[in-house]
Amino acid sequence: MHTDAELLAKAVAKDEARRAARWQLRFRLGWAALLGLLAAFVFLSLNVEVDFLTRATPFIIEGIWITLAVSSASIVLATLLAALGALGRLSSNAVVNAIASFYVSFFRGTPLILQLLVWYLALPQVGIILDPIFCAIGALGMNYGAYMTEIFRAGIQAVPLGQREAAAALGMSGGTSFRRIIAPQAFRIIVPAIGNDFVAMLKDSALASTVALHEIVWRARNIGQKEFKTLQTFIIAAMIYWTLTIVFTAVQNRIESRLAAGDRNKAVKG
Amino acid sequence: MSDMKGLSTTPAVHALHPAEKPGVLVKPGAEPVLKATNITKWFGENHVLRGASITVWPGETVCILGRSGSGKSTFLRSMNFLEDPTDGTVEIDGVIVGADPFHKEGSERQERIREVRMRAGMVFQEFNLFPHLSVIENCVEAPIHVKGMARKEAEAIAEKYLAKVGLLEKRDEYPSRLSGGQRQRVAIARALTMQPKVLLFDEPTSALDPTLVGEVLKVMADLAHEGRTMIVVTHEMDFAHEAADRVYYMDKGEFAEVGPPEQVIDAPKDPRTKEFLSRFRTLGAKK
Question: For residue A188, what is the nearest residue in chain B, using CA coordinates?
Answer without folding.
Answer: B132
